[in-house]
Amino acid sequence: MAVRHRLIQASPSAVWAVLADGNRYAEWVVGTSRSDPLRGRWPETDAAIRYEVRIGPVRLYNETVVRRYEPGVSMELEAHAGALGTARIAIELRPWGRKCLVLVDEHPLQGAGGRLHNVGFEALIQLRHRAMLARLARLCESEAQDARRAPRRAPAASPVPGADGAGRA
Length: 169
Known about the structure:
Blueprint: E1 2-8, H1 12-19, H2 25-28, E2 34-39, E3 48-55, E4 58-70, E5 74-80, E6 86-96, E7 99-110, H3 112-116, H4 119-149
Antiparallel strand pairs: 1-7, 2-3, 3-4, 4-5, 5-6, 6-7
């Protein structure tokens, strides 16, 4: 079983915001070049996205289905990869102080991927996860940094004199 983790310098809610946006799937999942909603409301159970994989001039279209999710905490996906079969991908977010520990656990469910699964295949999945978690970290950390840099607005003054407590004895 390919299990990998990464400490991301962003809050779990910031990481979840990226994971919960099906249109952004291709931004952090290695091997995908595009993703679009297919059915349901991502990341609710049974929602699906269609993703594109480009291999030279060839374009393959597959789908990923949400099989289980707990908002802000975890999701379990079933990725369909055509002739390679399907895989279960579990993603868990754990608060780690003000940071987020992300754990990814993937293993084949059906098809050729399950029959070909061995130590070598496991090593490839580990490399893919390392790259995938690095992409996810870059996205989340960049957005968290941008949010910290954004100017904060001062609270609006109350239109009613004394409504803010000023002027009282």
